[in-house]
């Protein structure tokens, strides 16, 4: 049995009293927590005009750690992604959810003035859903056409000047080469071609020029943008003046390069100047005959299909080409304007003159059927067959 001594009673009673008393909480109240003075977030963003809106979340990220280091990013996303492509005037909105990792701080009183965003041009910041441990920051970026995406603290001069259109090697008057003055700090350039207000091509180039002829195949206005790049830094966009491509210039571009790129296939092509035929290798016939799908066609010096009456530049003989389809006709044909009848040789398509035709009708020196009394058309006028080839 344990014995109690008189000197032990008082300490024992004190201990019992302390045990019975309610303990005061040691946790800090809101008033005890320290406010976060400022937050700096570096963004790595590559969203640009013409990019697909669906890809936006993969084009935005936090670059490195947040300052202070007890703040971390829970999530980041773009909240106003377009259903199609981004436009020059679009201003992406980036939602950044943050939280503290140090419980001695509170985010309840965080304001937009406490937020610094680097890496993008910013037009507005809002802070919402403020709790002790978390908050939501929404960053409204400047329009994409005004973004530079330069690294914070970068002193690189990546802006480009002296933009102009120069002639290409295909035609001295056809200005399809985008040129600019080189930037001393850029190691490459991003160039964009616009047809009116539509972005149609983006390229990267180390030289200070780029020939857009394969993409300038419509008769309309074009302009280009260019900016210098070095590593992850980009300069601001510089914009050229508008350049109008005539129908003849567009035709040259189309014939030399195809429509919108260097991939070719044999096909008929129609533009403002008429019909022409692009061969599988991208070439075209000019001032000569060509057999296409079993029919003969003649293409003028400009490469366009001829119709109606044609005098061969080689033999001087006359031929008749369908006024709509352009294919060479044989046998009897009636002029749609004069109503006169002519006979085109069935073997090579040339017009017979001053002779009797195979069906025993006479044509004079001009090739006109002289006719017989009471006849409105030559006998056998309905017959027409394909020729083996023009008589040049």
Automatic annotation (TrEMBL):
Signal peptide: 1-27
Cell wall-binding repeats: 286-305
SUPFAM superfamilies per record: Cell wall binding repeat
InterPro entries xrefs: Cell_wall/Cho-bd_repeat
Keyword vocabulary terms for this entry: Repeat, Signal
Keyword Disulfide bond in record: no
Keyword Nucleus carried by entry: no
Any single Pfam family the record assigns to this protein: Choline_bind_1
Region entry Disordered, spans: 373-392
Listed name of the protein: Putative cell wall binding repeat-containing protein
Annotated organism of origin: [Clostridium] aminophilum
